[in-house]
Structure to design on (189 residues):
């Protein structure tokens, strides 16, 4: 149930991230800036991977041979811990825990505000318990580890991305557990 949601949202978030992280220059005209951003979107590795996966699945092609699948599985298993280690080395705890800081505001938005909005949407659309639970978990999950890598690669604020990643990874789990218990208590999931 969550696979299509994650794929579509990941593409959307990456397109928005490329637009946000793209440097704009007053020297370039609007059409040149737009073209540069479009090229960056088309060359984004996550977008390429997701679109390729959708096409591969739509064509009904067989699974790759076992050695290739096993190699991909091993790489997937190490990607998140490695990204978290790299982001952890970049953390700025003082700015992360400052209540007026951007990282705290973004993290609270991710851990508290977005899940509350998702609950409102779930209630408004009278979602089935499974879909309601998937929506809540997807929205309240920690920030993507790839956000740090992307910010670093595109010359964005990698410290801010690391702070948001670290904070939401630690406190997002608590928010998810409390939220799911609350939703289960209300009989919505």
């Amino acid at each position: 149930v969550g696979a299509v949601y994650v794929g579509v949202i990941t593409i959307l978030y990456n397109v928005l991230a490329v637009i946000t992280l793209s440097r704009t220059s007053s020297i370039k005209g609007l059409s040149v800036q737009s073209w540069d951003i479009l090229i960056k979107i088309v060359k984004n590795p996550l977008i390429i991977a997701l679109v390729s996966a959708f096409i591969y699945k739509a064509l009904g092609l067989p699974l790759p041979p076992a050695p290739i699948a096993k190699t991909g599985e091993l790489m997937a298993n190490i990607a998140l811990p490695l990204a978290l280690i790299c982001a952890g080395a970049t953390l700025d705890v003082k700015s992360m825990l400052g209540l007026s800081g951007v990282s705290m505001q973004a993290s609270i938005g991710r851990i508290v505000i977005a899940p509350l909005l998702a609950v409102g949407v779930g209630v408004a659309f009278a979602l089935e318990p499974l879909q309601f639970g998937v929506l809540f978990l997807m929205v309240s999950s920690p920030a993507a580890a790839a956000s740090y890598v992307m910010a670093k690669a595109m010359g964005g604020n990698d410290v801010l991305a690391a702070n948001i990643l670290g904070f939401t990874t630690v406190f997002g789990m608590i928010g998810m557990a409390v939220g799911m218990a609350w939703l289960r208590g209300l009989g919505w999931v």
